[in-house]
Amino acid sequence: MTITERPSSAAEGEDLPRRALEAVCARGPIGLAEEIGDATHLLVELLREPQNLFDPEEHGSHDYTQLLGRIHEAGSALGALQAHTVVSHAAATRREDRRAARDQAAHEADVIAPQARTDDRADQRSGKDLSLITRRSPSEASHALRASRRLVESMPNLLGALTDGKITADIAHKAASKAGSLEPEECRELDRLLGERLPDLDGAGTRRWGQEISAAIQGLDPDGAVGRHQRARRERCVTLRPGEHGMATLSARLPGIDAAQAHKRLSLEAERLRADGDRRGHQAIMADVLVDTILGRDDQMDPTTLDIGLIITDRALFSPDDGEIAQVEGYGAVPAEAVREQLRAALRDPKAPQEDRYGPDGPTVRAVLRRLYTHPTSGELVAVESKAKVFPSALARFLRWRDLSCRGPFCNAAIRQSDHIVPRSTGGPTSIDNGQGACAHDNGKEEHFRSVRRIPQPPGGGHRVEWTSPNGISRTTSPPPLTRPSRTPAAEPEASPPRAGPREDSPPDGGTLEGPPDGGTLKDGTASEAARPDAPPEATPPDFLPPDDAGPGAQPDGQPPEPDQRE
């Protein structure tokens, strides 16, 4: 007699998800479509008859926080699922068209069309289906197909991050689209580099992600970056797009450095006018001053000296093949070739004074290079501390150059104020470690967040700030690295990377820093004094910041004062 033990109810419960998963996989795409259809039907019915589901009198904000988290996770997983489905749909269409081409050639004794032409027609058919299903234009659908194919076949780290809800579908497709100029091996390397940066980009917005992707691509393909910049530069233009209610949008496609200078000039003029009592909004003043200056009206801006941060290593400046990038205050990463070209133009004396691109004040507007420190591990800028209650102009400038855009989670706004992470009123020092660049909204963080704190000794070093919402949701932000962070060599890649979906061509962060740490390097490539064997016990950092003789809050000559800096 054989006795068979029944599995415990706990074991049965643990096995149910696995059995359900296997059942769905066994039924194929149609079965999965039916499961998703059932879930969608349930959601639609809930939205039509929610009863008290969305009644704030019955449920607290914590309940809706949990629901929002699950909705985001489901949306990210569906985004990854859609990418897989789009690629498999295109692969199946290619296979069907190849089979049809072979059958037609066999029946009509005709020559089989080249496979590339057949595949191109198949992709067009797939794009049409995707366009009609997702209600996108044919151009957008074709673009999404190419990005999805690259994401699924060559970018497993970002696809996994999308599946787990660590990035959005927009970020994943942005990376895949920008990688279109890379070879498959370079695309996989880009994916690996971005995968390593995921902890540092936890709270990064779309603007910061775009900068990181562009910087990584330039590092992988420096020769191609020069050509891409030169081609893009030839596409300079000004366009006019009619708007609603008698308004219009005037757009200028410019080199990044010129655009950043123009934007900062307008912003500073708006701050000056508001300080003098102008009650118009900041953005409205910028628009009005731009038009007044272009049309030569009485209210146009006066010529002035403009100081804008342009941060580049000596290696990027003099070694084009090194692959490093430059950073422009108010803009972000630009190809080093753009900076070299601008510096050559800025430092070149005109043949005649009337030909000076900067006008009569040209000699005073030439570029000024300052020596800056970088952290040897994270590649971020590091500096010194002040005893002032507000950030002196040099430290405020340093925060703008280090952070480049607002440090608030997922914020893409420009830096308007210098913020104490630990408020000055509670004992926070006025230092680089306790400072960050912020927009006006995120400078009021004490009103919107449960806590904002700097993470001590994060893996890889650098400056990491954790922002926690009232309901306990935490995100971490960090500055963009000027140089590529140091990392351990990658393991040998497998013979064939994992691929999701059928092949398309087959038949049926360390501590508080006040100057360069021991062993650090200066931006001119030389070792710091602390790293030299014969250095004195307490090395003095070089004078890389301008003096603050004018007192806290002073600005360089010719510039209006900084906006009010809250604590």
UniProtKB/TrEMBL annotation:
Keyword presence, Transferase: no
Species of the source: Candidatus Brachybacterium merdavium
Molecular function, one GO term: nucleic acid binding
CDD domains in UniProt: HNHc
Compositional bias of kind Low complexity: 484-494, 547-557
Biased composition (Basic and acidic residues): 93-110, 117-128
Source organism superkingdom: Bacteria
Keyword Ribonucleoprotein found: no
InterPro entries: HNH, HNH_nuc
Biased composition (Pro residues): 534-545, 558-567
Pfam families noted in UniProt: HNH
Keyword terms of this UniProt record: Endonuclease, Hydrolase, Nuclease
Lineage: Bacteria, Bacillati, Actinomycetota, Actinomycetes, Micrococcales
HNH nuclease domain segment(s): 394-444
Protein name, UniProt field: HNH endonuclease
Coiled-coil boundaries: none
Region of interest: Disordered: 91-143, 421-567
